Amino acid sequence: MKNLLIIGAGGVSRVATKKCVMNINSFGSITLASRNINKCKIIANEIQKEFGIKINTAQVDADHTSEVIKLIKDTKASAVLNVALPYQDLSIMDACIATKTHYIDTANYEHPDTAKFEYKEQWARSEEFKDAGILGLLGSGFDPGVTNIFCAYAQQYLFDSIEYIDILDCNAGDHGYAFATNFNPEINLREVSSNGRYWEDGKWIETKPLEISMEWDYPEVGVKDSYLLYHEEMESLVKHIKGLKRIRFFMTFGQSYLTHMKCLENVGMLRIDEVEVDGKKIVPIKLLKELLPDPASLGERTVGKTNIGCVIEGIKDGKPKKVYIYNVCDHQECFKETGAQAVSYTTGVPAMIGTKLIFDELYKGKGVFNLEEFDAKPFMDELMVQGLPWKVKEL
Ligand code: NDP
């Protein structure tokens, strides 16, 4: 029995669900569930029209572990792909433990009251996953996800030891709006406006938001200002890449985006605590999310490319070596294939690949794992054929 339950029906889910259908030989029945069943039905109808394959839809509020448990049992799922918001991770994980069902997600846990991403809560469930005899695959998106796989591939196949890693994330897409975020604004804006952090010589070093920047020439995109941010994959990579001396993460932002964000921050619109307005309590960033364009609606109008990769330096056969492993993705091509732009595409494809590798029994284990703990080769091979081809450039 290889039934899959996908929870969440946003941009990432749209891509992951379609890609699962395109790889239907690895899966049994597929059920797409979310808080709003209509969103699931829209995706299911498109799939039925395009591929002639029926997927099931269901309504679930993943805040309630009992609802997820019931749905897993009803659908006889052997794995749950969680592409809902990250702070639902834990209830879905708990439902997987209770029902002995494999678990895959694309992001790490963010407590709703603190702007802090961390794996602590997900890792803490490893013993329970072991006891239940199930596998939890954490962060199977692009970053985290493919960036972890690029680092693992370098460690396992290209280097004897790795000393420095810079993860470089460029989205050069243009959606034509004065201001919008390419994925959930709550997550995106919190990520960018928080203090930066990188890891060097065994400790974390904190920087002010966007304090460190550099120019980088991204293949097929061009030179872009890139800013140092904290990003979740570093938390697991410092544990699993042996001999590492430093790891940093950079993301590109245009000046207009940064000016809008600074202004919103200055007036308090990025606050995550409740404020009272006419006797009603609201969280400013949630109101902002309602006002901004829905990220899922950006696909059709976004043109340009993304380039995400890792510059990795280390030693091979006693000599210094430096490589750049990256993928370039075109927003319009992604939209033509899946109806979603490249940010959802680059996340949804690896979410499907992680799930497929578990269903095909190429990734096996009991407990909770990050991607770099597995052999990178099968994942790298799948990326090549599933729409995210990569290049390795010697620098
Ligand atoms: P969206 O916000 O577009 O979609 C999230 C979906 O989850 C919506 O359908 C939403 O339903 C549903 N949802 C939210 N809460 C619940 C709940 N309690 N019960 C059931 N369903 C719920 O997000 P994306 O598709 O853009 O992103 C999905 C995930 O991927 C996120 O966790 C995000 O952090 C992660 N991500 C990872 C990246 C990576 O590279 N690793 C990059 C980009 C995203 P509703 O419409 O009702 O709110």
UniProtKB/TrEMBL annotation:
PANTHER family: CARBOXYNORSPERMIDINE SYNTHASE (PTHR43796:SF2)
UniProt-listed Enzyme Commission number(s): 1.1.1.-
GO molecular function: oxidoreductase activity
Source taxon at top rank: Bacteria
EC top class, as a word: oxidoreductase
InterPro entries named in the record: NAD(P)-bd_dom_sf, Sacchrp_dh-like_C, Sacchrp_dh_NADP-bd
Location of the Saccharopine dehydrogenase-like C-terminal domain: 141-387
Protein's UniProt name: Carboxynorspermidine dehydrogenase, putative (EC)
Protein keywords: Oxidoreductase
Domain Saccharopine dehydrogenase NADP binding as annotated: residue spans: 5-135
